[in-house]
Write a structure and sequence with these properties.
single chain, mainly alpha, Rhopdopsin 7-helix transmembrane proteins, 2 domains, 14 helices, 2 strands, about 0% strand, elongated, binds zinc ion
Amino acid sequence: MTGQDITTIRTRRNSVTSITSTNNSVANTTGSSNYTVRINRTRTNTITSSNGNSSTKTSRSSSQIRVRSRSNSIFGRRLYSFQDLPFWQQDNDKILTGYVRETNSFTKCIQSLFYFNNESVNIYSHLIPSIAYLCLSLFLIDTFLIPRFPTTTTSDYIFINVFLIGAFFCMLCSGCFHCLKQHSEKYSNFWSKLDYLGIITLIACSMISLVYFGYFDHLQYFKFFFGLTCVLAIICSIVVMNEKFNVAKYRPLRATFFATFGMSGIIPLATGFYIFGFHGVLQRINLTFVLWESLFYIVGATLYGFRIPESLSPGRFDLIGSSHQMFHFLVVAGSVCHLKAVIESYRLVHSNFKK
Ligand SMILES: [Zn+2]
């Protein structure tokens, strides 16, 4: 280590002390993560001052430092960069800024709903649709759809709502996960599992509702597919909830289970082609919308898996346009297509087949 190195380190230490004593947002941080923030600030300071000399670095006034601190925040709220995060929060290194750091406070997590951060779009893109699906289930279907078809049976009514409640539950869990995962690692793990359970519920409810209307006059087939879907859903849920599988080593296994579960929808579809023919399936389950739904889910999962577009331009899509946000919107689009398919199947059953 040269004398110049020692001078540099001293200079950095001075600048760290200066920043820590003058910056309230840093003072608000807790525990070991305080250290991370300080080091990061020091690095920023050194880079910023590379055109000047070291005395300039250490003599920066507190007001200058406050200005920089404010530039890192939106609406006066401190947002953090990827390096500022504790290890457990570091998930996507292509999203560089805009993070809400570990809060250890339920209230602070809820407060994060009211200022823009890199989870805001993820939260609202599923929270708003979840409320919409709840309203559809509680009021809109009863008011605008069911009364038009007096032949509606109790089970018809139940299976329309099976999908609506499944979509509501999935998106509610997702919205809650993205809002509350900032609390702590324990909370994050808990809500992550619920998020996965929500996805399983949505897949299961989607299949069951459509198979019910598609096979309305072939009850034995419906019962078989209903049972198969439930068994696969339970297996997937066990894998997700079990701590043993909640490690990176088993990530491919979990992905395989989810993929298998999602792809199992092909079985009733293929059976439908065999029994009713292409045109029959096209009518019975409104195949066009089911194909659109599949396309949205596949594109969403691909973008999510490859972290497109942020992997192509890290830092550019921190707040808006990241792969996870796209995935959320495509899931909503897919679920809307499915709703359309279910409603059309229901209408067909009560307009053509039972007339
Ligand atoms: Zn999500």
